[in-house]
Structures are given as C-alpha cells and as structure tokens.
Amino acid sequence: MNILLFGIVREIIGTPVMDISLEPDVRTVADLKLLLVKEYPRLAGLRSLAVAIDKEYAEDEQLLEGSSEIALIPPVSGG
Amino acid sequence: MLIEIVPHIDLARVTDYLQSPESGGIVTFTGAVRNIANGKDVTMLQFEAYEPMALSEMEKIASRAQDLWPLQRLAMQHVVGEKRVGEMVVVVGASSAHRKAAFQACQFLIDELKATVPIWKKEFYTDSSVWVAAHP
User: Fold this and answer.
1) Mutating which of A53, A72, A77 best tests the B interface, going by the most B Cβ atoms within 10 A?
2) Which residues contact B60 (CB under 8 A, 6 or more apart)?
C-alpha cells in the first residue's frame, strides 16, 4: 500500500511515497503510526502526526483496509 | 466560492470575484512573507501542499463560514513554491451586505486555514532552514 509523505515527514523518511505491506498486526491508523515511529524514531519528536485516508483526517481506530489513498500529515503551517 | 492553490497570488482576481450587487462590504486578508522569524533574517519560504486534500479542507472551511454568517461570496487562495520577503502567500476574502459579517468571516477563514489545511512551509534563513511548527 502506498503512503504519501509531505514536509518534514518526507524529509525524515527520505521519499515522497513509501510502500508498506499490510501485515495482520497493522490494521488501523494507530497501528500504522506505531510501525512508522518504530522504524523512524524522529517522527516521535514531531508536535503531531495525523493520517489522512482518502483525503480526510482519520481517527486512530479507523481501518486502513479498503482505502485508496493514505497520507501522513505532519503539523500544518500554511498561511 | 473561489478556492485555489496557485503559484502566484492574484489579488485582483479574488476581489473581482467577491463583488456582487448585494455586497456592501468586501473584506480580504492577505498574508505575506515577513523578513524576520525567531529573531533570524528570513531569505525565503518554501510552500508545499497535499493539493486535493488542501482544496477539500478549504472548501469545508468556506462552507462552515457560509453557515455562520450571511455572506454572498467567499474566496481562499494559497500559494505553493518558493516565496521571497514581501511576496503574498495567502489571501482569504468574504463579501456581505454589511461589513461586520465579512470581517468576522475573514478572520475565521484564515484562522481555520492555518489550523487544518494540509499545507507546509519551510523557512530559510541565511545559515539554516526549518519546517515551521513541526516540533514542540
């Protein structure tokens, strides 16, 4: 499954798009965040880290399966 | 409503759009690149957006403003790319029969944009750079 990365998260992970395989223990938004923070500890230092599913902010308990686009949203700073 | 992500702010396009025969008050807020941040000289800002989601979040904000105030028209325009000191980076605007609703809606539009729309800026100084608001 492809995950879109932006801003500081793109720099920490080092690519604009990453491909992860959905293992049985990675089902929800919270599972995904846990997995990524374990692999990229610098993500834990961010003020916040949100996940968008199909271009909508997602809750921690939301399931990843069936979504067509997932994105990591670091703290926004437009304006 | 006029909702756009653009390489350059077009203020005339926004103010033209906001005009209507019923609108006695037209308010716009424009944000520009400031020369100093955190006590350092800013040389440039770089903006990036998750465009489809940013547009849909901006539409949601504008719809909420429409529910909160009696408005004729609403506009939000934000840039992506590199911007130098003094250049405009965002404009929001609202038109209403009277000024009060338009002023209040404008404040709401920019506050909400800054809080929820997936757009990011990296600030470049003479000797370093930082993603704004990324860390506590």
Assistant:
1) A77
2) none
